[in-house]
Write a structure and sequence with these properties.
single chain; alpha/beta; Rossmann fold; 7-stranded parallel beta sheet; two-stranded parallel ribbon; globular; NAD(P)-bd_dom_sf; NAD(P)-dependent_oxidoreduct; NAD(P)-bd_dom; NAD-dependent epimerase/dehydratase family protein
Amino acid sequence: MHVFLTGASGYIGSSVLRALVAHGHQVTAIVRSDEKAKRVRDAGGHALVEDVTDTEVVERLLHETDGVVHTASAPDVDPDFVATVLRAYSGTPKPFVHTGGIFTFGNSTDISEQSLIDPPELTSWRTANEAAVRASDARTTIVAPGIVYGHGAGIPAMFVSDGTQPVTLVGDGSQRWTTVHVDDLGELYVLALERAEQDGYIVAATGDNPTVHELAEAGAHGAPVVPESVDASRERLGTTFAEALLLHQEASGAHARSAYGWNPTHPSLVQELATGSYVR
């Protein structure tokens, strides 16, 4: 399949690019600089230095390719991009895999594809875009990743210490985060693309739901782990970001395994923080 990929130089998108190439797909990606274009080419893709907000370019690529994976999801991008894809793909067999996020479901100890949404302010902008995707007659799948980790990057890097500097929790650290390794996530995007469901939705979570305190302990490597009040977290991180990180969220990811044959294989986030890619 010839796949149009957005966000190919980003954290999630670069993993999706590697997975698509590994599965024998041809990839054309829009990037914003020659440096990012080189990264795409080095990973086996074809890069165009263009802007994903250029509707004319997007329409041409949608016509020339067999499906699209959109990982460059952002408030200033999604409304026009989503509308353009849905218009072009209406009534066709071409698959559109869109990126959501776990924060959409708010506080929940059992997040599934049927859970009600209750997004914090940080990600409330996703709601209208996802509704448009799900209401269309195009072949669409939304992938909602948990807290993404791996390769020493992502939100969990905030809990990494060399053992000499204290690690500050978000709140008291009792809240749980539902997690997914970025390379397992890349594989799931490929499965979603190849399955090409009509109104598919996937909670991308491995079933590992550690507490923030457990994550901080793993990443501190013997340094003190310091709790703080909710108000202190809001002041340090900004209210909208802190409110999202304070959510208590647990998910099993059962649908991804049973319906898509997904088999996550990478170490847990606690293991990665303690002995893996986050070790300094």
